[in-house]
Amino acid sequence: MLSSTQDPDEEVALEACEFWSSLAETPFCKQALTEFLPQLLPILLKGMEYSPADRKLLEDEEEEDEMQPDQEKDIKPRFHTGKIMGDGNSNSAPAPILDTTATTSNNNTTEADMDDDDSMGFDDDDDDDDEEQTQWNLRKGCAAGLDVLSSVFGGDMLGVLLPLIQERIRDTQPWYVRESGILAIGAIAEGCIDSLVVHLPHLIPYFLTLLNDSKLFVRSITCWTLGRYSRWIVYQPLELYFEPMLKLLLTHILARNKKVQKAAISAFATLEDEAGHEIIPYLVYVLNTLMAAYGKYQAKNLLILYDALGSLADCVGDQLNRPDLIAILMPPIINKWNALADNDRNLLPLLECLTAIALALGPGFLPFAQPVFVRCVRLIESTLVALNTYKNAPPQEQGNMEHPDKEFMVCAIDLIAGMTEGLGASIESLVGQSNLARLLGECMKERGPDVRQSTFALVGDLAKTCIYHLRPYLNDFIPLLINSLVPDYISVCNNASWALGEIGVKVGEDMKAFVPPAVQRLIPIMNRPNTNRNLLENTAICLGRMGLVAPEIVAPALDSFIKQWCLALRNIKDDTEKESAFKGMCMMININPQGIVQFLVYMCDAIASWRNPTPELLDMFSRILQMYKNGMGAQWPGYYGTFPEPLRAILSQRYGL
Q: What is the residue-averaged pLDDT of the chain?
């Protein structure tokens, strides 16, 4: 295999290269390969060089090509990922104290995760306009193989690897040799980081100088490699590496070469994600640069810029809501918004970007809300009309018709959801003056999971902010939500359960008639093995909220779901959703205290997971715990003594047990 990896026939070499990646996934890889590393690693590094044919093509590439429009065939298709409600609710710190590894699921995979086959990023390192350069090749295969091997060997491979890389990145080497060495350092960023940290204070400054290299391919791969070390960089004093890197990346974002632009804006997006609020002091500089790029980028890089703007809004949140920043950010975006036709697919990434911006700006988005809202409703309605026309056409005519593009409708729904969450009650007048609620009823009947996922999220958002406008439609909406409580499509089911819970806490008694069929669907999901964690949490919250609405209906079934309910909610952060669910649970326990006796320790653990319960909830917890303590009488000390000591410490301190 060592010989085959060097075969002159690239297809043979690439197949052999895949062998090393496959071997790295086996439990015996380290034992089998250790003695061969001195032979294998130089071969992989050599394979990471651009081939002679590629070098000839690349050396003919113009240094300044920013004015050349991208061809449509070179732009990879994008697929919108809808909103998933409740994602990110889990605490970073573990809750007390029970060993639940055998009974809870840590599976947090979504449909979007399963579609992501480009997590290592090597497919983008050397993406050129030439079609052959966008295909998987030996260079990318060797880089991916080195990445996977680094995750197996970690620092144990650096003794062999680092001298080889150091030789490659010498200034006297040809550009393509230096470039392969820089790529190699990026490839091992995750697998070898623990052992590399002692070298990074020397490597990072050197790579920062390479951002000014005379060869554009060295500059672009250096951007990518620095991005791979962003997490380490942001944890150092900012003036050491973060500030110089940010300044250089922003400079190269405005480069006159599209490949360098792409590498710089991609690395910046990675850096801002890791930096979070640390980037706030630099927002004026950052936004001025990004909006200058917005005015000059061609189509491919504009997509990445939209992602970077959306990520920036997510990172800094309401810190973006400053008049000086809005004045930089919004005029170019609104100009573009007005220039694009409703059927122009370039509108889709702008809709996604505006969703994040509207959420971050909150009330600062109000001056732009009315025209954006109206257009989104128009996009939803026109798509529904087109879909109905297509569905009702005779079969012989359908064959000559183009299927309507639902993505415009989905993105528009998500943007209204972002506006609703950001503007809060200020969205009410816009909803009241529109036919949005009626249109959402039609969207909820769509077979496509992407449409229903986004629609259910918006229905839940509107229930929180302006339930008045939904009330006339709830007798139709709620059965559609209940019928979607089927975990075949995780995100659809997740958002349906979240929206049901939001409606329930708003309409109270009016929800009672729907509680039995809802609970009949929710309990099997709660007890389903290996269920997605986010879905479990939202299902548990919805069950608790159904108990808040109609405790007498749900309480008899407590013993069939209480254990999994407690395990699902023990690790989520304290917030209003969790609070309403626990209030509902307390009300159900008061009606059916026997229903949780067998699983009381799990309920105690869930109660102890609260860090700052409200006074009302604290009182409810205290009354329930004292009820069980008093009910057990002389048996309580022995039973309580079986609890883990850290759990007893919390319960004794807070509730006097």
A: 89
State pLDDT tens for residues 581-614: 999 999 999 999 999 999 999 999 999 999 999 9
**Res 191: pLDDT:** 93
Burial call 401-414: b when 16+ CB within 10 Å, e when fewer: eeebebbbbbbbbb
> Would you state the structure tokens that stand for residue 522, as one six-digit string?
């929710």
Per residue in 25-71, pLDDT (tens digit) is 888 888 888 899 999 999 999 999 998 888 888 876 767 777 677 77
Angle (CA) 125-130-134 rounded to 5° is 40
* C-beta of residue 519 within 8 angstroms of C-beta of residue 554: yes
Task: Report d(CA 201, CA 240) in Å as an integer.
Answer: 9
- pLDDT top residue among 219 and 18: 219
Tokens 């609710």 found at = 89
> How many beta carbons lie within 10 A of that of residue 385, not counting itself?
12
Residue 347 CB contacts under 8 Å (≥ 6 apart), including other chains: 337, 340, 341, 408, 411
DSSP 448-464: -HHHHHHHHHHHHHHHH
CA-to-CA separations, 622 to 235, 476, 607, 652, 653, in angstroms, rounded = 42, 40, 10, 11, 11
Q: What are phi and psi of 572, to 5 degrees?
A: -95, 155
First to last CA, the chain: 66
Contacts (Cβ under 8 Å, ≥6 apart) of 105: 529, 530, 531, 532, 533, 536
What is the rounded distance in angstroms from the CA atom of residue 430 to the CA atom of residue 436?
A: 9
Q: Which residues contact 373 (CB under 8 A, 6 or more apart)?
A: 416, 419, 427, 430, 434
Torsion of CA 599, 603, 609, 612, to 10 degrees: -170
Residue 191: C-alpha distances to residues 24, 82, 84, 448 (Å): 12, 31, 30, 39
Q: How far apart (Å, rounded) are the C-alpha atoms in residues 215 and 38?
A: 30
Q: Report the alpha-carbon distance of residue 654 to residue 378 in Å, rounded.
A: 54
Residue 24 CB neighbours (<10 A): 21
Which one, of 339, 343, 332, lies nearest residue 309 by Cα? 332
Q: What is the mean pLDDT of residues 410-420?
A: 97
Q: Which residues contact 312 (CB under 8 A, 6 or more apart)?
A: 272, 279, 286, 290, 320
* 118-172 pLDDT per residue, tens: 334 454 444 444 444 457 888 999 999 999 999 999 999 999 999 999 999 999 9
Percent of the chain as helix, strand, coil, to the nearest 5: 75, 0, 25
Q: Does the pLDDT of residue 183 top 80, yes or no?
A: yes
CB atoms within 10 A of CB 247: 15
CA-to-CA separations, 300 to 73, 146, 195, 567, in angstroms, rounded: 11, 28, 37, 45
Supply the angle between the helices 175-187 and 200-210 in degrees, to the nearest 10.
140
Q: What is the pLDDT of residues 535-574, one digit of tens each?
A: 999 999 999 999 999 999 999 999 999 999 999 999 899 9
Crossing angle for the helix pair 158-168 and 37-47, to the nearest 10 degrees: 30
Residue ranges of the alpha helices (H) in 470-572?
474-483, 490-507, 515-526, 533-549, 551-554, 562-569
97 prior amide bond cis, ω within 30: yes
